[in-house]
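Shipment paperwork, digital attachment
Item: protein structure file
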Amino acid sequence: MITLKKQPLFYLVIGVFLFSLNTNAQNHQQFTIVKKIPSSSVKSQDRTGTCWSYATISFIESETHRKGQGLHDLSEMYIVRNAYTTKAKKYVRFNGNNNFTEGGQAHDVLNEIRIHGIVPQHIYSGLNDGAKLHNHSEMYAVLNGMLMGLLKSKSRPRSNKWQTSVNSVLDNYLGVMPKEFKYNGNSYTPQSFTRNVLAFNPDDYVELTSYSCYPYYKQSVLEIQDNWSHDLYYNLPVDDLMAVMDYAINRGYSIAWDGDVSEKDFNHKAGTAELSNPEKDGIIQNGLEKWRQQSFDNLSTTDDHLMHITGIAKNKNGTNFYLTKNSWGENSNDYGGYLYMSKWYVQLKTVAIMVHKDAIPKVIRKRLGL
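Attachment content:
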């Protein structure tokens, strides 16, 4: 998910800003938190298209806390490093007819954890050679150039040496991956840390979407570019999707959210994402599901950005909003890097979510066969 192509560079921030629930800043709304799920501190993805990793790692951190395993600070870039290797292999196998960008999806994190485990942030920061901020522009240009050159080569059969070269580039820019490390006085591999400290099982989680082009209550490949692994999503009517979100949050489960942030009413600096009155736009009369499908097909709803929904709030008018943790840094707005997305915005602009299976209402879960 390469959000930074659509956002100004002032979202590249450094520093610490304490999150306040009662900001007095002018022109900002006042919100009352109804439900808040514990989460780690707000991070910054800096000049990278890695929101998918930041959002999902934050989601996993909240999940380990919910399960009584503590609130750990996990490495986003360890996942990014491993995903690049997987993505490159698939890109070559498809002879270039697959997505190879900085972007990704929530399931990419789970897929890499299944194979490579995860490590704490201080064990693998992804900042090499004294770098203070993440910037993958040059690294991506080198990797992309190598792979494009490889695909243009007429040499057959193709050797596997290019894979060693890709890994060398990643090691040079992000650092060599740890095979073993110490944490709280004990030695772990990434896999044993995931299993014994986090007690995290990727198979406990599912992704859900809502588009009428796919059969409801079945799995389909969500046709977005950043689904480069062609993973399956369960498809729900939009009312059921919203029911899952509310059920999850009210029972202490947070949500990894994937959606469109290109709307002019998405204003991270102001800390809000809202849309105009639905009746004015004729969306209710014409049908919400029909509107969502049309906006998906005509690209007025695009797969822009992943964030972590950690609660529910109300404004002074009693309107429901979702408390959402972004990855543009604590100092990126007056809400400490969080923002409030209205329920109407989420209904219209959600592309997909990830939740724990137990965060799905039983009647919906049964229909999904989970």
